[in-house]
Amino acid sequence: MNASRTSGAVPPAASVSETGFDPTLFDRFPTSGERPEGELGELEHVWRAPRGWGLLTVVNNNYVGIFYVGAAFLFFLLAGILALVMRVQLALPLNGVLPQETYNQFFTMHGTVMMFLFAVPAVEALGVLLLPQMLAARDLPFPRLSAYAFWAYLVGGLAFFASIFVGLAPNGGWFMYPPLTSTAYSPGINADFWLLGIGFIEISAIAGAIEIIVGVLKTRAPGMSLDKMPIFAWAMLVFAGMIIIAFPAVIFGTLALELERALNWPFFDPTRGGDPLLWQHLFWFFGHPEVYIIFLPAAGLVSMMVAALSRTPLVGYRLVVLALVATAFISFGVWAHHMFAVGMPRLSVGFFSAASMAVSVPAGIQVFAWIATLSVGRPRYQTPTLFLVGGLVTFVLGGLTGVMVAMVPFDWQVHDSYFIVAHLHYVLIGGMVFPMFAGFYYWTPMMSRRPLSERLGKWVFWLMFAGMQVTFLPMHLTGFMGMPRRVYTYLPGRDWEITNMISTVGAFMLAAGILIFLVDLIRNFRFAAEGNAGNVYGGGTLEWLPTGLYSTRSIPLVTSREPLWDRPGLSREVEEGRYFLPGSATGNRETIITSPLRAEPQYLQIMPGPSVWPLLSAIFTAGFFLLLTVQAYLVGVVSGLVAIWCMIRWLWETDRPVRPPTADIGAGIEVPTYVTGPSTHGWWAMVVLQIVIGMIFLMAAFSYLYLYGVHTSFWTAPPAPSWLALLLPLYGAGMGLAWLARVLLARRRSTLWSPATALLFGAASLLTGFVLDCLSWRWSGLDPEASGQGATVYGLLAIQGFVTGVAVLIALYVAARNSRGLVTRPRNNSFDLAVLFLIYTGAQGVLGAALVRLFPGAV
Amino acid sequence: MWPRISTPSGIVEGLAGWPPPVLDPAGPYAGSVAALSWALIALAAGIFLIVLAALWIALRGRERLRARLGGERAIWIGGVVFPVVVLTALLIWGLTLTRNLSEPAGGPELRMRVSGEMWWWRVSYLDGNGRAFMQDANELHIPVGRTIAIELVSPDVIHSFWVPQLSGKLDMVPGRRNLIRIQADRPGTYAGICAEYCGGPHALMGFLVVAHAPDDYARWLAARRAPRAAPPDRQSARGAALFVSAGCAACHRIAGTPANGQAGPDLTHVGSRRTLGAGILPNNRGTMIGWIGNSQAIKPGNRMPPYTVLPGEDLQALAAYLEAQR
Amino acid sequence: MPEADPAAGRDVVQRVGCASCHVFPDISWPRGALGPNLGDFADQGLIGGRVPNRPDLLAAFVRDAPALIPGTTMPAMPISERESRDVAAYLYTLRDR
Fold first, then answer.
1. How far apart are the two ends of chain C, measured CA to CA in Å?
2. Cβ-Cβ contacts under 8 Å for A426 (sequence gap 6 or more)
3. What is the assigned CATH class of domain A58-524?
4. How many Å apart are CA A422 and CA A471, to the nearest integer?
5. Is residue A2 scored above 60 in pLDDT?
6. Rounded distance between C-alpha atoms, residue A61 and residue A63, angstroms
7. What is the pTM assigned to this prediction?
8. pLDDT-based confidence at residue A9 (cuts at 50, 70, 90)
9. Which residue from C14, C28, C30 is facing A95, i.e. has the nearest CB?
10. Does the domain at residues A681-854 carry the CATH identifier 3.40.50.1820?
11. Whole domain around residue B243: which residue ranges?
12. Contact with chain A for residue C31, Cβ under 8 A
């Protein structure tokens, strides 16, 4: 099933190919000759956006991307306002602007909102907005998933933020350390708002990450091999990969803490064999990579803009890519530098200190790559350049203080002091906020009729830059003077009032800059997918091709990193439809799926259009979590069931083969329109999802082993290992039946029902295994409330139970599709994904059951 | 209205923000870190200037200099070789220092235990067998020139023990026992503060370390261990009775009396403390009455209930009695 | 009051912690709730509800209240005579606005 075979050409032996595609076919582009009339009109018709209230059902990345960026920016403003009020409170010693409790809620919300509701969604939003354009895809591969991720984030985020207006906002700090956040010391529902609200927004982040991984790897323009990918796409790929690995830690952490709060399972209670430090390990295993999760995409933006504004390719492209990947790897070995002061063994302290220093090397590579690029070109003094240079200076200073705090003895002094407040704001504002503002100025012309004002932009920059320095530079000194973080006030007489007053003045300068930016935005930003201001700054990458809602008229063949610079006629040729997919080949929304390494065309993906179901799913998912938080359990569960029903409705319309089975994507190259198996975007997404679930499972297993190491004395004997002789065959049968179902589906002689029946029996076998697994522990007398062992064992079971439940649901769903004749033969995507999921469920069941029975018992 | 900034008037003489305590060490455990801090500050400033210079050349420099910067060689030198060399050197220094700081400085150590509690500090002075022979709260008295090994524990949430002039900080984690060493080389009063957010009035959880010359320390200790006299006057005697009848004794202990509560700070020596409310108020009869009568208005959320029902004479008597507990 | 400095009085008030029982309009912490709010003290006719509000009596009262009004909750405070006059002068700046 590949394009070269269907087109009948035989690849020459010498050419290298990933998929068997004949690269000489690329020589057919640009095509010549007239394009048929009405082709463009049809493209516009197919991709038109709904109007009026219907706009809420929009799924196109231009709209969802803009909404997403706007929502993230809104949360940036809200959290910024909280910061301003806190700065007023701290301007004077013993000031009375904010009472203690309100201040504690404010600083918790400031950190939480900035990290979870602004920074991560903001970069994800920029990905949704920019990636399809940069990759010349018509849209991201799962437009409805983007819409769902956005709406879930917006609805959940707003409801979460609203908790501060009723005094119910969390007050345990954005890091939520137990036991302070356990029921004993936080009996109110404030902490639950954090746990359920953030847990929910993490789901949205993961949905976005899956979208981005598959988008970058599978929807690039033909010819855009990995080494020709824009740096931003690399950064987003690494970003999404990091989310996949890091977020499960905090998902499991929040789940465990919520279980401790709601059901009294002692994950973190030292009197019953839990450990407060387990939370810190889980939280920072997520929390430190989180910083790079925020920084890397912004660094990708900087690399793009530095090259474009200098009008020269990025110096050291390969080194920068290497640096991005290296950062990701090292960042998973630095989490415990947030814990130098908890009293860790010296050996681990040394390891984490070394890793924390090492992570500055890839940052240094990028900084010098940018400086080198700036020296090759002649950047003009435009607003984006100012923000880039200002961000660079700020980030370098933050990086240097970062190296300082990686020195353990120094950290023992400044840890949790205002020195750290200064350090982290230098890194995050210099590394993420300034690049983002540079990006706002640089990319606005891509989707607005008018660019933003250069004159106002300079004001914005200088106020923000000066305000940033005035606010945070004195904080280094405040920290040396002994002022701890997270204090709502301080006593006079230690000179803290001097530096604090300066910081407050600076904060208002910073705010004034942002205010002017809003003025600029209101005066000049006019959304337009077509007829926008265009390539004001002379960028060389594909997002500057002329576009409509359908993205580019035709999808260009990419032969270099800056195609627009290297082939001056490219824009015209693209606009004339001389490349791939110059119209709608099947009358549907569609994009070309290409291979992950060399971007060879594989098939034509039929994309879904506007739909109300992602919106409704998001609203009811949010309702489920929020209603649980306010302890309206019954309504909450109903809302959750409605959400599931909405999702099934949304999925029901997907995975339908279209006619014809192959289509011409330009120059006579025929590719299939329905493909199954490991090359499909759905398969890739499922594998990524399984990595996420597997990581959650891994975190639970880690917690089990960790608590065993800390409090062995609380451990009791597990059920007899002979249980495995029953459980493993059951889980194995589940996996085997799932596989058999796939085999049966391909058989010519299978009846209509036999594959679905096998699938259902597989799910039933998994369910039986899970139920017996639970019962064996019940009968062994272990109570989840009794000890850390109980909590983690039942925690593992809870995850298994959730996964099993989903597996059963999926099997029923596929059986229902089968009964309506929607399961194609011999292969079907929905069916394949169900099989994959069932196999995963069985494998996780085997691992879980074996781990808690054989360790430590059999060792 | 907008409050005026008052003239700096620390509640305890001798505490000031300048020179910054982190960089103004009073003993070896803070001293070596202060030296490291200065070196790090100088190094960071130096590297920052180098980067600024490179940036300046890139943007404004002569063609020849810019050509040198504009290649992969510059990235290798500036982004790889230079950092690796500097960081390796730093790492060796840092790890060596880490080891030295977590080991005894030599000589017999005094042992104490400090328990961080919401939102005050329980202090125990330990004998050679690790048994507590004296209880106190919110104030540590130490002799100059001796290393003090302090066990750090917590019965409730995580707190962190930090006296910048004497050492770095170390957390107090429920279920664990950490050991920190401090030493003062000159007599004086050193401020400490809780450095891990512990909810509610975390901001108002300070304490003091008072370092005495060795002879003074011996005298101080002898005085503390001397037999205690009966309440000196009628008012204090009435206070002593009230202390039990009004319920104070349920939470507070005064050694040698029936009062043996363990929930709140030990008040055996409260009269000699420099501060009230964990390092936040000066200690005099007025603040003592204010604290007993309604501490919630002073330190919202603290565990002591208000006693507004007590008549003035009773509050006066209690304050007089407590003032006498020195 | 001649030869008394309200600003110095305010510093004394802060130093000895009068605010642990009283609310002062220009001191935002603590805002003690045990004693009366002194926000409009200058307009009060009596000190402690018993003694005429006169500068000399006020200075004596803030220094040693029980000597003037036996049984009051307000204790003697560790301040000098000079400081007590400053404190009194400061208290007379507190008017209801």
1. 21
2. A394, A395, A397, A398, A401, A472
3. mainly alpha
4. 9
5. no
6. 5
7. 0.94
8. very low
9. C28
10. no
11. 234-323
12. yes
